[in-house]
UniProtKB/TrEMBL annotation:
Region ranges (Disordered): 12-37
UniProt cross-references to Pfam families, sorted A to Z: DUF1684 (PF07920)
Protein's recorded name: DUF1684 domain-containing protein
UniProt biased composition (Basic and acidic residues): 12-25
InterPro entries: DUF1684
Length: 177
């Protein structure tokens, strides 16, 4: 693992911790911020930075995702990522809402509800170009984060659909508080 990668990852984590502790839009309730001393993270690990093959869905299917508040929200299933991890092949679906450029990748794995937030974690990919079938992108699970509803019940967050439940433990990114 390169020192530059770890330094950048650690700087991003420190910035997020400062936001959660100090910013008025922090999801941590104001009365809990004084005692907040940062999130717990898995150690950076390049094994969880994988190259994924892209399948683009030209006619995206509308998917209704349940939310933490019992509602549902619509996303378009725009892309599928296929990758190898620990010698096994896996896939994750990427979603967008109207007007979004980022690809939303909510997921659950074998750490969910144990070492990580019970509602799953998120990643967002912002490709620097329009993706096409067969392209390869890096999915970095070290960047996996807990949604705001992990910090306060006042937030309503999409829950990862069953198609994005991985049968492997992803010991990367944010852990439970």
């Amino acid at each position: 693992m390169t020192d530059d990668y770890v330094d950048e990852l650690e700087a991003n984590r420190a910035e997020k911790d400062r936001f959660l502790a100090e910013h008025r839009q922090s999801p941590i309730p104001p009365e809990e911020r004084e005692d907040f001393d940062g999130l717990d993270y898995f150690e950076p690990n390049l094994d969880y930075r994988v190259e994924a093959s892209v399948t683009v869905h030209d006619a995206p299917e509308t998917v209704e995702m349940d939310t933490s508040a019992g509602r549902s929200v619509e996303y378009q299933h725009v892309i599928t990522f296929e990758f190898d991890l620990d010698g096994e092949s896996h896939h994750l679906h990427g979603y967008q809402q109207a007007g979004d450029d980022a690809i939303f990748v909510p997921f659950r794995d074998k750490t969910t509800g144990q070492q990580t937030y019970e509602g799953g974690r998120y990643m967002e990919l912002e490709p620097d170009r329009t993706l096409e079938d067969g392209d390869t992108v890096t999915i970095d699970f070290n960047l996996a984060y807990s949604p705001f509803c992990a910090f306060s019940e006042t937030f309503d967050c999409p829950l990862p659909p069953e198609d994005n439940w991985l049968e492997v433990g992803i010991k990367a990114g944010e852990q439970s508080r």
